[in-house]
Specification:
- The structure holds two protein chains of two kinds.
- Chain A is mainly beta.
- Chain A has no helices and twelve strands.
- In chain A, a hairpin with a 2-residue loop joins strand 7 and strand 8.
- The termini of chain A are far apart.
- In chain B, the strands form two sheets. In chain B, strands 2, 4, 5, 6, 9, 10 and 11 form a seven-stranded mixed beta sheet that branches. Chain B has a four-stranded antiparallel beta sheet with strand order 1-3-8-7, with no helix packed on it.
- Chain B is built from no helices and eleven strands.
- Chain B is globular and about 40 Å long.
- By secondary structure, chain B is mostly beta strands.
- Chain B is 0% helix and 54% strand.
- In chain B, a hairpin with an 8-residue loop joins strand 9 and strand 10.
- The chains are: A mainly beta, B mainly beta.
- Chains A and B meet through strand 6 and strand 11 of A and strand 5 and strand 9 of B.
Chain lengths: 111, 117
Amino acid sequence: AQTVTQSQPEMSVQEAETVTLSCTYDTSESDYYLFWYKQPPSRQMILVIRQEAYKQQNATENRFSVNFQKAAKSFSLKISDSQLGDAAMYFCAYRSPDITFGTGTRLTIIP
Amino acid sequence: GAVVSQHPSWVICKSGTSVKIECRSLDFQATTMFWYRQFPKQSLMLMATSNEGSKATYEQGVEKDKFLINHASLTLSTLTVTSAHPEDSSFYICSAIPGLARNNEQFFGPGTRLTVL
């Protein structure tokens, strides 16, 4: 079974600064997808960014980017210019084809 | 993006009663829907995979007779918690995938908070 590990239960960052959330996973497959989801206090799961394992180029979405290291099975999320609205639980997820979520990282933005 | 709705958003029921939660894909057809359970400050735990027109596939440790899933159409899946007890109190989230492609994005419903008294 695949496992997804988020080693940082909580993180905080000053507004406008940059923060990186860590995620590692374990799999024997070569074709899979990785995701970062955001869950704000409303508890609605929101897709932040996704990465196809066959793509070497790191995905980016505006202020959000990933550092995908396939050999190391690492998939970290970098949030640049942090905003108050970024405060949420962030879940890393692996999919092939069923999805497995990590335990989550609670991100606090300090004004 | 595509929209998935859940109804009700919250429900309170007495112990021993049954509760039905609906999950609908509003603007796409979903061959596959998923049901998750989330305890406070924890991650989402997959309960079962719901396939239209066939029996749901339950994860290990999830009682299929307790959590009845029906995926009667390409836009609707229901989860019925039968003979609910206080330990069933939780946040239940459904998600749906448009079409069959593995890389299709999974869209989540807003969740249903169940409280069993």
